[in-house]
């Protein structure tokens, strides 16, 4: 996952995607005058919130998750991927040496249907769903195969 790149920022200066359009894992699908965004596009878009942030070490005691985190201007950004294809995973985040300070913004891509994809007939079948979690305590449930980008103020 893209978390690998974030967690090894000291070794990787630039990462790009090779397949831009009409390939496996491409960002876009085009046909004639129609063009749609793929779930891969949405994942890349969700990870932009790490740009210009200070990467912080993230520890995860579950082999079912991939995690990376960064801080910028007092806001923690965590991207979490549920690697399981068979079960939802309960996530509990805890900032060491600090605390969450308010509401979290959560972007969630995936609803547990691992075969879901965008088509020209249904171009928005798989798009990030945004929500606000009031007084975020670090706990959320990720559906199987889902990707989440969480931003929350920290002190």
Radius of gyration: 16 Å
Order of helices and strands: HEEHEEEEEEEE
What's the number of extended β-strand segments? Answer: 10
Outline the biggest β-sheet. Answer: 6 strands, antiparallel
Biggest sheet strand order reads 3-4-5-10-7-8
Shape, per Cα inertia axes? globular
- Contiguous low-pLDDT stretches (5 residues minimum) are none
Structural class: mainly beta
- Overall mean pLDDT stands at 92
Task: Give a concise summary.
The chain is 9% helix and 34% strand.
Report what the structure shows:
The protein is mainly beta and 155 residues long. Helices cover 9% and strands 34% of the residues. It has two helices and ten strands, in the order H-E-E-H-E-E-E-E-E-E-E-E. The protein has a six-stranded antiparallel β-sheet with strand order 3-4-5-10-7-8. Strand 3 and strand 4 form a beta hairpin.
Chart the SSEs and their pairings:
Layout: H1 2-7, E1 28-31, E2 34-37, H2 39-46, E3 54-56, E4 65-72, E5 75-82, E6 89-92, E7 104-109, E8 129-133, E9 139-142, E10 147-153
Antiparallel strand pairs: 1-2, 3-4, 4-5, 5-10, 6-9, 7-8, 7-10
Using brief descriptors, characterize the structure shown.
155 residues, mainly beta
